[in-house]
Amino acid sequence: MLYHSTNNPAHRVDLKEAVLRSLPPDNGLYMPDKLPVLGGDFWKIWRYLSFQEIGYAVAEAFFGEDVPHDALKDIVEGTLTFDAPLVTLAPGDHILELFHGPTLAFKDFGARFMARLMGWLTRDEDRELTVLVATSGDTGGAVASAFHNVPGTRVIILYPEGKVSGLQEKQLTALGGNITALEIAGSFDDCQALVKSAFLNQELSAKLNLTSANSINLSRLVPQSFYYIHSARQLPEGVKPVFVVPSGNFGNLTAGLLAAQLGLPVEHFIAATNRNDVVPAYLSSGDYQPRPSVATISNAMDVGAPSNFVRMQALFGGSWDSMKAKIHGVMFSDDQTRAAIREVKSIHGYDIDPHGAVAWLAARQWRAGHPGTATISLETAHPSKFPDVMEAELGKGVIEIPERLAVLADKPKVATKLGTDTAAFHDYLRSI
User: pTM of the predicted model, to two decimals?
Assistant: First the structure.
């Protein structure tokens, strides 16, 4: 299969180029020339398939022309070593837990798949691959875990100074080995802009053999569509879910749209954001206006210029009417998010993190206006990753920190501080 740039359909590359180079030279994003659809034979039996079997069917639909059956099966099985269970809080009110992987965040699905696919694509090469990634919270930790001490790779993670939680920061800065953390004196949008600038610099990209692990890389999105299908099959037959997605860079919601494109019956999608509501504002007005991000307690969603918006536009043929017919956008404040954390604990005895709380608020609002519908709210990270917020709302010691996160608490932070100047960042990259 060939992949084209969203900025120029005439620019087309093969799978290896799309995955390893990540970003087209015209600053677009790669999309498949033809979006696959799973056939009727799959949808006759999908409710009876395992998570791994669903993952393989989806991966084969996207990558089967380029990756042999056995290799693709190994990639999927190596990725899906943990579950994504659906928890029912009340009739029609469901939570999809995506934090059971090694770094306690949904990014584990995409990062582990991508690392394995890149390993297969570079199996005959002896050049070191440099993975460059910007993070607003969980992406960096998942990528660091997936690539830690993988031969032939080094990982450089950019994160905004003072805008990730303490334990999230330790996941980026305490591993050592082939993982380097850059603490940027700016926002996530600044980090993302620096990463893109490096890819658009042909000399740097070639010298360092750059690839990206952000959701600008298509191989990060495809495996995230696995759990949309996996969760929907856990509902009663005939029930079409409304997926409620806490959204920042909009990779997760784009993955849901890919699942729908494959044939998954979906009633609706809800883009739930914090104050960084660029996409909900667009869905309301038709006017897309990126702006500087603002800091909130749901920090992984603090994105003011979401990269995957161009993919969303491509999936809807650039039609605002078509997009708003399928996606509803809504925004909630920090105060509302805090109240939701307390309310979910009080009513349901469930610990929900700040990102999941935003989704839960949006789901409740939707059900109020659409009685009888079934919402699936994506709980994208374990609440223990946000101790300050959770302790402030629920009390100290209520949230138990899993051992794989707790062991990082006392490890030293190792990070290089940089500003947002593009030339200085490029000089740093040339020096490594």
Answer: 0.91
